[in-house]
Amino acid sequence: MKIYNTLTRQKEEFIPIEDHKVRMYVCGPTVYNLIHIGNARPMIVFDTFRRYLEYKGYDVNYVSNFTDVDDKIIKKAMEESVDAGEIAKRYIAECKIDMENMNVKPATVHPLATQEIDGMIEMITTLMERGYAYAAADGTVYYRTEKFADYGKLSHKNLEDLQAGHREIKVAGELKENPFDFVLWKPKKEGEPAWPSPWGEGRPGWHIECSVMSKKYLGETIDIHAGGEDLIFPHHENEIAQSEAASGKEFAHYWMHNGFLNINNQKMSKSLGNFFTVRDIAQKYNLQVLRFFMLSAHYRSPLNFSADLMEAAKNGLERILTAAEQITRLAGAEKPAREMTKEEEDLLGQADVFRKKFEASMEDDCNTADAVAAVFELVKFMNTNASADHSQIYLQNLSGRLHVLCEILGIIIDAKQEVLDADIEKLIQERQEARKQKDFAKADQIRDELAQKGIILKDTREGVTWKRA
User: Which of 262, 124, 102 is nearest to 182 (CA)?
Assistant: First the structure.
């Protein structure tokens, strides 16, 4: 399996620290509002990669945090005249609802920054003792970037080039030693949440939070650190500087970053009026469509979101769901038990080619776009090579292949059995009777009436099926 490593800018063979175990950290959202579709992309793509790793037999310790203390959370709390903790708690709950509806598996641990303050104070103290951090007179603690020789190795930014022509800036009345020194601890301001520390009451900087949570739940060196491309600099760069200065060990062996999400070829922003939350999308689409849309492109590629592309994703997903429904019905039909024929065994061998294509795609830097293409090939094969004439064991094997691949993608194809209203059931029965009596005009009339009620009928050799429009 190969992963494109942002650190080295090349694909590398994935070799875990421990055999059959993966330690993976994915930066989670700052919880001050409903999550937007930009937040959804890393959630979906790295959840899918995790699913594939588990499919391959790895025990994945998957940690994804919630940043529950931050300037934006505090601002929102002040606007509503409530405690910042109340805002965080509310939007963590809302985020978990959206994650469930996108079929994103819960992390092994979802740590909260506010519950790890002691660890942050401990790491900052270590950094100060080793000369990597210093305190200003007002209680602000900064990281000394010039002290860390490898600063810039992830973003491939040269500190000297960044400094060139950059004027010195003042922060809280004190000159930083370097304009690129960043905050580890900030002093308390009126009305803000704060915790006691050796440097006075205050709260941690953003970057130190992830370093400490990763260390606590995964260890000083992890296999994979992942997140959005926008986090490479300064967030992930600063995580490396803090963690490696504190431990003296490599922080993460592989760095994975998903590309940006644009809206109609423009950057998403509230000022442009093209800002969409996951909840906004859920009003128009099942969030399985959003998930399928996200997986239809390679995770490192920029992804453009538009109504047309979402409709295309909806139609593509529908092809898969229709095929899944058909094969499930065929495989579940009662018929005399018999062994597979030689022809059926050969067909299953041909179907296995699509599984191999799927695996090859996923092992080539989590190429979900090509993996989805392999699923479509399997669907086309099933539509041609599955009928009521085939043995049950063959049909069940074919159905199982589709289920396994869709499970890795997080696509739910086992639709919950829905009970129709009695009047709808009655109309379907009346139509069946009309067809038996060869009263096709009445049958067509009832079909049209059901369509107006949002029920689409399909006549098959095994009987009539229905779905909601």
Answer: 124
Q: Which residues contact residue 192 at a Cβ distance below 8 angstroms, ignoring those fewer than 6 apart? A: 74, 84, 203
Q: Which helix (H) or strand (E) holds 425?
A: helix 422-436
Helix (H), strand (E), coil (C) string for 238-276: HHHHHHHHHHCCCCEEEEEEECCEEECCEECCCCCCCCC
User: ω into residue 234 within 30 of 0, thus cis?
Assistant: yes
Cα radius of gyration (the chain) = 27
| Dihedral sign computed on CA atoms, order 214, 217, 219, 222 | negative
CB 200 within 8 A of CB 188: yes
Q: Is 464 exposed, middle or buried (0-12, 13-18, 19+ CB in 10 A)?
A: middle
Mean pLDDT of 440-465: 80
Q: What's the whole-model pTM score?
A: 0.88
- Cα angle 257, 260, 265 (rounded to 5 degrees) comes to 160
Closest among 213, 250, 253 to 17, alpha carbons compared = 253
Alpha carbon 346 to chain centroid, angstroms = 37
Condensed to tens digits (0 to 9), the pLDDT of residues 270-320 reads 777 788 999 999 999 999 999 999 999 999 999 999 999 999 999 999 999
